[in-house]
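Duplicate of #3305? Posting structure anyway:
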């Protein structure tokens, strides 16, 4: 039986926890304050994922949707954007070790959500195949791709590999480390299919004559994209979400998106 004394103790404990949380917030413990103080926003990005984050060999700068958005976020804070290159396999570890935010066309997943916060979703972007154009009718469904004779090429460490392992286990899965040139494996006949985000395969279709995206507007799997943020930092998340909301409301987001899709 719960007594009045017990209820009073529970209420007192809840009030103490609330006051402690408020005190911590008032002490300026958010990453937002750290970024403003150091005048630098450290952004983890992979540099291998058009149209979101890309850096060709020998280039000094990254380009892409998330790169431009990262610069916009930094400008809103009056700080410098510094991009730190990572890989999909090391994304979470590198993010937690040395970055304030990760921006690289990152799919929202529950395993990632366990270790970090996500910003508000900024793009719905499911998985779709890309194949040689003469094979479009052959690879219309997951079942059609998931055959022992199909050679599926995939970059390691991210959600593309997870999708292939989970949904295409009967196919021949080939890992290819460099996501910037992985498309040539299909174009030159060493692989048959890659499954990636629909926005990505639409762009690669433009960049590689002879390759065609398969039903990119009807993806094989639903997906959302967001920015990785420090776990538990509601103050920083609130700022990033509000910046993103305004970027969309003012048309800045659409301008950045469209300029990187041409």
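Output from current build:
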């Amino acid at each position: 039986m719960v007594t009045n004394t017990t209820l009073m103790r529970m209420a007192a404990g809840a009030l103490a926890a609330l006051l402690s949380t408020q005190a911590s917030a008032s002490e300026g413990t958010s990453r937002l304050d750290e970024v403003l103080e150091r005048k630098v926003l450290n952004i983890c990005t992979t540099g291998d994922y058009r149209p979101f984050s890309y850096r060709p060999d020998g280039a000094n700068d990254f380009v892409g949707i998330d790169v431009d958005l990262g610069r916009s976020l930094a400008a809103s804070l009056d700080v410098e954007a510094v991009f730190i290159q990572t890989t999909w396999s090391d994304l979470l570890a590198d993010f937690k070790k040395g970055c304030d935010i990760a921006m690289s066309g990152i799919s929202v997943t529950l395993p990632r959500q366990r270790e970090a916060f996500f910003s508000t979703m900024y793009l719905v972007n499911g998985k779709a195949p890309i194949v040689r154009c003469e094979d479009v009718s052959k690879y219309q469904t997951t079942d059609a791709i998931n055959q022992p004779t199909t050679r599926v090429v995939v970059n390691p460490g991210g959600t593309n590999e997870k999708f292939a392992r989970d949904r295409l286990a009967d196919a021949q899965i080939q890992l290819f480390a460099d996501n910037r040139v992985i498309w040539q494996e299909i174009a030159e006949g060493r692989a048959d299919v890659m499954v990636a985000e629909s926005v990505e395969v639409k762009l690669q279709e433009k960049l590689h004559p002879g390759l065609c995206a398969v039903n990119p507007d009807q993806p094989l799997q639903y997906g959302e994209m967001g920015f990785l943020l420090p776990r538990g930092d509601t103050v920083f998340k609130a700022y990033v979400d509000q910046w993103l909301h305004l970027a969309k409301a003012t048309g800045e987001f659409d301008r950045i998106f469209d300029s990187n899709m041409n």
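Confirmed duplicate; merging threads. The two ends are 68 Å apart (CA to CA). Residues 156 and 162 are 9 Å apart (CA to CA).
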